[in-house]
Amino acid sequence: MVEAHSTGNGVAAPKDARNSRAITGICDRFGNDPHRMLDILRAVQDRFRWISPTAMETIAEATGLTRIAVEGVASFYSFLSLEPKGAITIRLCDDIVDRFAGLDDVVKSFEDELGIKLGTTSVDGRFSLEYTPCIGMCDQAPAAMINDIVVTRLTKEKARSIARALQSEARPQDLISPQFDALSPYERVTMAVDSNIKHAGEVLLGPVPRDAGLEKASVLQPEQIVAEVEASGLRGCGGAGFTTGAKWRLAAAEADTDRFVFCNADEGEPGTFKDRVLLTERADLLIEGMTIAARAVGASEGLIYLRGEYVYLQEHLESVLTERRTRGVLGTDIMGKAGFDFDIRVQMGAGAYICGEEGALISSCEGLPGEPKTRPPYPVNRGYLGHPTVVNNVETFCHAARILDRGDEWFHAIGTKGSHGTKLFSVSGDCLNPGVYELPYGLSVAELLRMVSGEDAAAVLVGGPSGTMISRDSFQRKLTFDDLATGGAIIVFSGKRNILEIVEYYMSFFVHESCGYCTPCRVGNVFLQKAIQKFRKGNADSSDIDYLRDLSATIIETSRCGLGVTSPNPILSTLENFPLVYSAVSKKSEDGMKATFDIQSAIEEARGIAKRRSYIFDRDYGK
Amino acid sequence: MSEPRKARIATTSLAGCFGCHMAILDIDERLIELLKLVDIDRSPLTDIKRFTQRCDIGIIEGGCCNEENVHVLRDFRRNCDVLIALGQCAIMGGLPAMRNAIMHSDDPLRECLEEAYISGPYLRNTTHNIPNDPALPLMLDKVYSCADVVEIDYQIPGCAPSGDVIYSALSRLLAGKFHGFDRETIRFD
Amino acid sequence: MSDTGFTFTIDGLPVQAKPGQTIMEAADDAGVYIPRLCDHEGLRHQGGCRVCTVKASGRSVAACTQPATPDLVVENESEHINSMRRDLVEMLFHEGNHLCPICEASGNCELQAMAYRLDMTQPTKFPYLEPCRALDASHPDIALDTNRCISCGRCIRASQDVDGKGIFGYVGRGIHRRVAVNGVDLAHTDAAVTDDAISADVCPVGCIIRKRVGFSKPIGSREFDDGLIGQKIESKRK
Questions:
Q1: Is B110 part of any domain?
Q2: Mean pLDDT calculated for residue range A573-586
Q3: Angle, CA C101 vertex, CA C96 and CA C105 arms, to 5°
Q4: Domain A500-583 classification at class level
Q5: Any alpha helices (H) in A257-414, and if so which ranges?
Q6: Which chains pack against B, by 3+ Cβ pairs within 8 A?
Q7: What residues does A491 pair with on adjacent strands?
Q8: Is residue B119 in a domain?
Q9: Cβ of C166 and A76 within 8 Å?
Q10: Facing residues of C209 across strands?
Q11: Mean pLDDT of chain B
Q12: Is the minimum CB–CB distance between C219 and chain B shorter than 8 Å?
């Protein structure tokens, strides 16, 4: 349903009044709290399919903000729209893995069947068709979101039949199962998306006894919990690798009555999907880990920041939370211990990679655009609403729960020196067995490639685009914090893939996902993307290689957060490991003329207007 | 002993207003000193229309708004060892490049010409035509800076650069001692 | 931390700082100029333009937001730092439409003055993005030409914190992020020419324009005609 435009005569139509009541109702539901802005806007988007100017004014009034503040949030997130979107919005994942898996055919099927072009909305307002960056389904690409439903392993034919079903009034959830409404939340999730666990290790994906870690933690002093996690050697699994115990210790040491434990489930790095699997299969363990962290740092409130793309998991997580409250392992007097109070809310994101950065994640939870915060102060000192906040990755919390159960020495003994325990790897791309692998730290890339049957690999992207692209001669390198650190994404590319095409895609990803707060990341990445396009068109010369390096160096050194610091990595690591790819397409300019300037295309329009040929540049002029 | 060889200089004005050439004349009496060091080849100042021989320095005023500008600029690049972009138009398109920001429609050049010659609110064009004499060079889709089209070695900023700045840059360049401008003298206007 | 001051160095020069001061605040007091665009006296620090990037004991940080600490060794005016700053200023020039010869802020423009100070005179490979942003001339006394906006956000903070109004705000993300007004256009906000946010020194460029006063100062007597940006601070050095 699309909200009516203002009638313009100053008298609100009955429909306008009804819409306005619906919006104030939504604001009421969230306590008219400006910190719940993202929830309010998501709800308005769901109800009306866009955030209209009048909606922004109504929301601003209800929450006590200015309209421009509301617009600032509404215009920041990809899943919120300032223009009417179709009642059914189909978001095709346009990650490079999906492209290589046949995305073009899928797009064409949807376009043909729905009669609309990509990036547009049908005139009747029923359908919108658009691209969205990696939705965490690279192991079953091509994939798409249809409203809140995920469909995977799309083919030309499957896309066609989905489009036809939707046109004949099927609901998106009917695509998953005709009995969707009768399914349990867990069944709804697993019928839509395979967990694809290809190798279970002994820490996370093997058998896990229920709440064993929490039971032990509940009889320990907070200080003892921190000490145990510290002694285990556990480091953050999101990519940065900060020592978890140290993080908890810093938060616990702050003099503040309110502390928060946040779970970063904004798994946005292209090619990463291991948290999706943990959220599906180990939700209890995650919440157990968060509850242990809460006891360790003295927090009574927690939050799971779930990326907008994983909205299909929301209901499942809510049901696990409810079940835990009923069981007395979440809420008040946890495990019967008076005063051990901790509860968790799921905060939905709305399509912004940057919100995986912990400061941006906190901004987003506060109802703001997802912009990183100035550091210092660090979140552990002053985070959510100014209070000490521990933000850890999904996998990290799961590990913590297991460490409390089995002991720090057990965990410390797994892996290598400096990289303890196991790691989940999300493997996708050109291999026979994509999926999730839980392996101890210390394996080489070559060993992993053998496990996934990806021996044909010519290039492996370790850690996603913000990681490192390595070539065959580096496949002996080890997957550890000291060698190839990774949040877990392993994308395999065979020899038939075009490296520059991959690099250009990832630069376009960073351009799309930069928050725009700081100059180098906002502007510099656009320049890098344009420079790569120049190479792809064959218009680059050898000085452009220096240009890539110099510009990258400036972006890395002056950017405000990790996004800008890592965004040139696709370029720098391929310049380093695939130098021939660049030199092969760069010509040496002998005569001082710029290859990028094309006189023929520059005068084409004028030829048409003047209805004559060029007396300088058209050889056939006058003939 | 023979006199040291005099440097050969060529100049041209592309999509500019000739203000930068006027500014060259603002070098005033020091022009006499300068002319002891250089000969001027192709230039509006000498009215020589074609290069008589290879030049050491080519000075370009203005950016490229039509095909002839491109043709001349490429000719300068081929015939000069060092190219200097003189003034904002040569450096970044300048005032003519104001049209670039509106060149985002499907038919930008036509839109621009119609606004300029037919539909603009302050126009009095009795022919109601866009000029289209066969002798007129074709316009480019947008205005390009000189560095968009050829390699440029040095830039002298200003609109126009002052005679002092031009003189000091040229004389230091000729002496092989040009290492950038005094920061206090840099102007973009 | 004690309440007494401490010392650190900028380019080898000892600088006194009070606890809680940023590197830039301490530098300003000591008469050492650190280039900046988004920072403005009396407004919250933003740390967005990154032109104030310095190396503090080996780590690149924004001087406007980074707290000074005892014995910090800050590198400010090195060729390496200044070349990065030049890149950043050049990015801002290429991101918008900055036609100095026709801009009424020319001579009083901090972006332009920063380019002078950082010697932005060499050919560059940066492309011009040439955005097409609509002019907002709806207000009787004020016009907005966001083609010249460098997203410094000084007007946003001034309007929010000094005027208590919130006329301006950021919208959009990434390269599409820009400053917008709290209403359909400026005439539909409570902006007044007397606002601090509208005053001549808050907007560093020619984006916020006060109508009917353009080009009133002749060339030669404009703010940066007689010296480099930063000289006011540098003249405080003993």
A1: no
A2: 95
A3: 70
A4: mainly alpha
A5: 274-281, 283-297, 314-327, 358-365, 394-406, 408-413
A6: A, C
A7: A428, A461
A8: no
A9: no
A10: C143
A11: 94
A12: yes
Query: Does the pLDDT value for residue A356 go beyond 60?
Result: yes
Q: How far apart are CA A345 and CA A348, in angstroms?
A: 10
Predicted-complex ipTM score: 0.97
- The CATH number assigned to the domain holding B11 equals 3.40.50.700
Q: Smallest Cα–Cα separation from B140: which of B79, B174, B96, B182? A: B96
Whether the predicted pLDDT of A3 surpasses 70: no
What pLDDT band is residue A369 in, cutting at 50, 70 and 90? very high
CB A58 within 8 A of CB A92: no
Q: Give pLDDT, residue B4.
A: 74
Instruction: Choose the closest CB to C121 out of B95, B145, B155.
Output: B155
Whether B11 is in a domain gets the answer: yes
Tell me how long chain A is: 623
Neighbours of A123 (CB within 10 A): 9
How do strand C178-181 and strand C168-171 relate by DSSP bridges? antiparallel
- Cα–Cα distance measured from residue C44 to residue C40, given in angstroms and rounded to the nearest whole number: 8
Domains: count for chain B: 1
Q: Do B74 and A594 touch (CB under 8 A)?
A: no
pTM comes to 0.96
| SS3 (DSSP) at A568 | coil
Residues C185, C187, C190, C191: is their CA dihedral positive or negative?
positive
**Could you give all domains of chain C from N- to C-terminal order, each with its CATH number?**
6-77 (3.10.20.740), 86-210 (3.30.70.20)
Give residue limits of the domains in chain A. Answer: 14-74, 88-192, 212-407, 419-497, 500-583
A609 touches chain B (CB under 8 A): yes
Task: Tell me the average pLDDT across C64-77.
Answer: 97
* Average pLDDT, integer, range A161-178: 96
Task: Tell me the Ramachandran region of residue C227: left when phi exceeds 0, alpha when psi lies from -120 to 50, beta otherwise.
Answer: left
Helices A185-192 & A274-281, crossing angle to 10 degrees? 150
Contacting residues of C for B94, CB less than 8 Å apart: 99, 101
Query: What dotted CATH number matches A419-497?
Result: 3.10.20.600
Provide the pLDDT for residue A16.
84
User: A88-192 architecture in CATH?
Assistant: 3-Layer(aba) Sandwich (3.40)
Q: What is the mean pLDDT of chain A?
A: 95
Using a CB-CB cut-off of 8 Å, the residues of chain A touching C170 are: 72, 369, 516
Pick from A205-219, A313-327, B115-129, C54-68: least confident:
B115-129
Over residues B159-182, mean pLDDT = 95
**Do C144 and C205 contact (CB within 8 A), yes or no?**
no
Instruction: Tell me what pLDDT residue A1 has.
Output: 39
Question: Which residues constitute the domain of residue B34?
Answer: 7-98+139-185
Beta-bridge partner residues of A427: A435, A490
* Closest C-alpha among C224, C199, C210, C191 to residue C41: C199
Element (H, E) at A494: strand A489-494
Separation of alpha carbons A122 and A124, rounded Å: 5
Q: Within 13 Å of residue A457, how many CA atoms lie on the same side as its CB? A: 32
Any domain includes B129: no
Nearest-by-Cβ selection for A71 from C87, C94, C171:
C171
Nearest of A401, A615, A230, C81 to residue B133 by alpha carbon:
A615
Q: Quote the strand ranges of chain B, DSSP E.
A: 7-13, 38-40, 55-61, 64-66, 80-86, 139-144, 154-156
* CA dihedral sign of residues B27, B28, B29, B34: positive
What is the fold, at CATH topology level, of the domain defined by A212-407?
Rossmann fold (3.40.50)
pLDDT at A174 over 90: yes
pLDDT in tens, A105-125: 999 999 999 999 999 999 999
In tens, the pLDDT along A42-96 reads 999 999 999 999 999 999 999 999 999 999 999 999 999 999 999 999 999 999 9
